[in-house]
Amino acid sequence: MSDIEIRDDRAAGLLEAVGAGDVVGRIEYFVLDAPERALVPVHTVVEPAHEGQGIAGALTRELYAAARREGVAVAPLCSYVVKWAERHPDDAPAVDAELLRAAKEWLQAHPEQF
Predict the structure, then answer these.
(1) What average pLDDT does range 33-39 have in this prediction?
(2) Is 17 exposed, middle or buried (0-12, 13-18, 19+ CB in 10 A)?
(3) Are 77 and 41 in contact (CB under 8 A)?
(4) What is the dihedral of CA 12, 41, 67, 60, to 10 degrees?
(5) Are 99 and 36 contacting, i.e. CB atoms less than 8 angstroms apart?
């Protein structure tokens, strides 16, 4: 995993793991503005040839690190990120129920985004 670079393409809502010039994994997310600003991961995907190498965990760790740097919350809708957060409570603060509800409502209103 040491040769993997993680890049954040905020405009596209992609946090990508890149190795040898190829995208080998990604988290698809959006930025929620209300009731407070939050990063909302929707899908985590790792290419089959790269599964089991810790890429999804590295992407998730970077997502939470980016949120901390920006002073925003993470409202996970992606099942992988939810499970990762449960296993890493020191790195992944619990999300407010109202914020999670707002994230789900935004996604339901914008299904074409994902």
Answers:
(1) 94
(2) buried
(3) yes
(4) -110
(5) yes
Dig out the tokens for 71 from the structure. 């002073």
- Is pTM beyond 0.90? Reply is yes
Question: What distance in Å separates the CA atoms of residue 43 and residue 41, rounded to the nearest whole number?
Answer: 6
Residue 39 above 60 pLDDT?
yes
Asked if residues 47 and 33 have their Cβ atoms less than 8 Å apart, the reply is no
Tell me the average pLDDT of the chain.
95
Extract the tokens encoding 41: 């991961």
pLDDT for 59 beyond 60: yes
28-to-2, 56, 62, 90 alpha-carbon distances in Å: 22, 12, 13, 23
Instruction: Give the tokens for residue 85.
Output: 């957060």
